[in-house]
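note to self: dont lose this again. the chain is below, predicted strucutre after it. 250 aa total, dont forget to put it in the shared folder this time
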Amino acid sequence: MRITSAVEIDARNLSYRPLNERIRAVIAGGASEIALRGVQGQRYIGAGLAGDVRIAVHGVPGNDLACFMAGPRITVHGNAQDGVANTMSSGTVVIHGHAGDVPAYSMRGGKVLVRDGAGYRAGIHMKAFGDRSPAVVIGGTARDYLGEYMAGGTLVVLGLAKERGEPLVGEYIGTGMHGGEIYIRGTVEPWQLGREVGVVPMDDPSWAKLLGLLEEYSGEFGTDPAGFPREGFTRLAPVSHRPYGKVYVH
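---
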């Protein structure tokens, strides 16, 4: 008998392996909407899933949420741990809280929307190919090595609810970056930037792309996109598409 309605799974007494097996089983049975209750750090939720599936996570998922995912939508009603959307190909992850370190590591497509802040190395090795271009919007602050070795896609940091004395972004922004763009709502100092990245003007196509992401973020979290004026953003882009060309053998 195929499942045609939303399914709830109680994750409180399940380790990560049986929980993920159960998720796959109900999807194979036809479920397209799943609510996970009592999630307590289980890893790999949504790993490798494909298709039109919606998963609501109630609790704190463990590392590598949505890794290698291709299509589903995961909404986390709380914080998430490290490695969100690791090598994700497509789909959407919405986090109603904070993300840990290395969110969007090697992400290849889709979107990650984080209501609050993120840790270190957000967007490291993000890349784009063909019509796939990943996008990450971090509503709060981000720590060091934002966009490290980034090869494509879009990273946005809004700095909402920033506490007094808290830096908007850390150091070494865009270190090794050779593709994609970073948008920061506020200013950054030259000493915060990696040598491979520089400040560039906000042209109309870039603003149109950024505005679309801001509207999507606002639609998820109830903010007003009019509160993000164009002149308030710093746009960063790589100064070279081959920053380490001289160190390779030709």
